[in-house]
Backbone:
């Protein structure tokens, strides 16, 4: 078990920089998730740590050892690949024993470890099979088994669940979390699925275009996104954004736009801060779960008259897509649908659960 | 009614296809069958009209060849020359092909193309320079010279083939092996190599065939002591006529090992030769 740290790490392919100034301190026993859209450099970061890609500049440490120039075999890490990368000409047992044999463990020790891992993963009956005779979920387990028999310092997992069907993915997600509870090995997990990130990570690293946007716990990320990208990436359905202008009239600070949007800032401290933004462009953000439907044509503060465009019944909850002017908003209401398409309704925006971002920089104005 | 029509049409198509296949097969096999049968007949029986298909086989021609002639020596020469050159081509070709497929060199493609282009040289064009080189290094008439000559053609071919097979293999398995504790070389021979085994076998057979069937190089570079079978056959044509019995027997000996090898590894051959074609 060990800590991992990236210090000012860059990765360039030709003149394209795919990882920019990565700084990350991963604690011992931590389960950390790298998340971000396709092509943002998650795999590249992981592969640099594994020693499969060279580091262009910067340093990577495992424990106290700088590993930049260490071949993969000496780093004492185990990796689970997206396509599993099982050795097709070996059976499951040999796949799992491969790394141990290279390290010259005794046959009895190898046997003990392989059987133990197989028992944990429920694949004891598959040990004689070749990878091509296994289902996707079983291959996945073998790939994990091959990693855990090694008892490495660090686990690396690159989208290990993305080839599984939705149900199996949820099940394996829980099993991986349980496995980590049990083994307590430091784990770095890559995914582009924000639900996976939120449910599994002790901390989450959100990346975009090779740059780390925010490193935080799931709830911190959900409640206090540092910028508009993180806000839009975390949470499903995604946060609603409304372009608006900040206006100070009399003693009140208001957000308005030409679609008839009007939002009054109640928070005195924030209102004071927003004085600097008078007449400047902001982006107002609100999560679908922080929008309520209110009866009648309420003209109360922070209510908005809207038209219902689409209603999606998810059983326990309903997603209602509404619009006013050019603006569309997703609302998440509990229970079965109460609204009809085409109907005009009133929605209330939560007066204290909202987000504000600078339009130009995308950085959160609330801290 | 319509169904019946369709059925007859299918039947006609079937009959047509099988007739065509039968003709093609007879066309291809007839000379071989005739050769093998003739080699088992006496000189007189060979030309009897109409040809007999059922007769008492005699191995007298073979016995004569091995006992009286130098046939055993020629056979040995052929085996040594083709096996050695195939072995060298496979070992070096596999290593080089892997390096070209996996190493991220600048210009790897150009190097690869240059290498395969040497295989496209007409044999006649290679003979003269090789002759001069061999003469200088006293390799004329030696088995080593012949092996080198075959390897100049087999090596680029094997390298190109193996490179193609390796390039098509996803590198993830080797990466997994390296993370698991393998050196680069272990990842190569424990993980990558077994997966291209069919390709390796197919390449080996093709190299073997080139060397085994070669006449041009052998006729120029061998001496009496290092002659191979194809050269030996040509010597059966003398001023006094053609020793048909021996020619047929020798032909059979040339074809037989390739036939057996081909059948034995047929599974690999098909998979190996189609490896490049998949996807
Ligand atoms: N060998 C390479 N040569 C050049 N560019 C590369 C190479 N490997 C990756 N890249 C580029 O680096 C960027 C980051 O790739 P990376 O595989 O790390 O993305 P990712 O975040 O893992 O995406 P995904 O979710 O699709 O797996 C991409 O733009 C990709 O095109
Ligand atoms: Mg990736």
Residues:
């Amino acid at each position: 078990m060990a800590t991992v740290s990236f210090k000012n790490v860059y990765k360039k392919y030709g003149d394209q920089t795919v990882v920019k100034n990565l700084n990350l301190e991963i604690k011992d026993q931590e389960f950390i998730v790298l998340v971000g859209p396709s092509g943002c450099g998650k795999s590249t970061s992981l592969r640099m740590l594994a020693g499969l890609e060279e580091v262009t500049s910067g340093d990577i440490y495992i424990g106290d050892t700088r590993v930049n120039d260490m071949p993969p075999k000496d780093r004492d890490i185990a990796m689970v690949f997206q396509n599993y990368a099982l050795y097709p000409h070996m059976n499951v047992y040999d796949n799992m024993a491969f790394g141990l044999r290279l390290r010259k463990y005794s046959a009895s020790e190898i046997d003990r470890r392989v059987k133990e891992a197989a028992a944990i993963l429920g694949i004891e009956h598959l040990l004689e099979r070749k990878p091509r005779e296994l289902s996707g979920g079983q291959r996945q387990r073998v790939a994990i088994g091959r990693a855990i028999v090694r008892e490495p310092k660090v686990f690396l997992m690159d989208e290990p669940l993305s080839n599984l069907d939705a149900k199996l993915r949820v099940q394996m997600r829980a099993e991986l979390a349980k496995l980590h509870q049990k083994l307590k090995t430091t784990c770095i997990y890559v995914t582009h699925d924000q639900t996976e990130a939120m449910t599994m990570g002790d901390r989450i690293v959100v990346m975009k275009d090779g740059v780390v946007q925010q490193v935080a716990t799931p709830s911190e990320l959900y409640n206090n996104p540092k910028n508009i990208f993180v806000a839009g990436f975390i949470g499903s359905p995604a946060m609603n954004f409304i372009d608006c202008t900040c206006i100070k009239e009399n003693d009140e600070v208001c957000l308005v736009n030409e679609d008839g949007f009007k939002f009054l800032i109640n928070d005195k401290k924030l209102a004071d801060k927003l004085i600097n933004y008078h007449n400047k462009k902001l982006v107002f953000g609100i999560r679908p779960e922080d929008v309520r439907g209110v009866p009648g044509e309420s003209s109360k503060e922070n209510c908005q008259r809207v038209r219902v465009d689409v209603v999606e019944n998810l059983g326990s909850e309903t997603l209602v897509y509404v619009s006013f002017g050019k603006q569309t908003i997703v609302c998440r209401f509990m229970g079965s649908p109460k609204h009809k398409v085409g109907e005009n309704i009133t929605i209330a925006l939560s007066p204290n659960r909202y987000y504000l971002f600078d339009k130009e920089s995308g950085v959160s104005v609330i801290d | 009614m319509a169904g019946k029509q369709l059925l007859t049409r299918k039947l006609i198509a079937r009959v047509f296809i099988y007739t065509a296949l039968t003709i093609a097969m007879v066309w291809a096999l007839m000379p071989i069958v005739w050769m093998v049968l003739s080699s088992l007949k006496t000189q007189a029986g060979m030309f009897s009209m109409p040809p007999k298909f059922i007769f008492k086989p005699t191995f007298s021609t073979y016995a004569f060849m091995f006992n009286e002639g130098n046939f055993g020596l020629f056979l040995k020469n052929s085996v040594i020359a083709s096996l050695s050159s195939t072995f060298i081509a496979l070992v070096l070709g596999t290593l080089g092909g892997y390096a070209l497929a996996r190493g991220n060199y600048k210009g790897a493609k150009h190097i690869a193309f240059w290498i395969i282009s040497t295989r496209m040289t007409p044999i006649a064009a290679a003979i003269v320079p090789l002759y001069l080189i061999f003469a200088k290094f006293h390799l004329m008439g030696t088995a080593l010279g012949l092996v080198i000559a075959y390897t100049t053609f087999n090596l680029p071919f094997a390298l190109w083939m193996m490179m193609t097979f390796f390039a098509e293999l996803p590198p993830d398995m080797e990466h997994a092996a390296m993370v698991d504790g393998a050196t680069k070389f272990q990842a190569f021979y424990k993980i990558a190599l077994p997966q291209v085994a069919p390709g390796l076998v197919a390449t080996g057979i093709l190299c073997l065939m080139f060397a085994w069937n070669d006449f041009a190089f052998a006729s120029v570079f061998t001496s009496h002591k290092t002659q191979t079978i194809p050269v030996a056959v040509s010597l059966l044509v003398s001023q006094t006529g053609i020793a048909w019995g021996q020619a047929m027997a020798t032909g059979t000996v040339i074809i037989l090992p390739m036939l057996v090898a081909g059948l034995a590894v047929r599974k690999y051959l098909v998979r190996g030769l189609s490896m490049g074609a998949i996807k």
Notes: The interface with chain B takes residues 50-52, 71-73, 75, 77-79, 81, 83, 85-89, 98-99, 102-103, 146, 150, 156 of chain A (CB under 8 Å). The domain at 4-233 of chain A is CATH 3.40.50.300 (Rossmann fold). Residues A 13, 18, 36, 38-44, 192 surround adenosine-5'-triphosphate (ligand 1) (CB under 6 Å). The two ends of chain A are 35 Å apart (CA to CA).
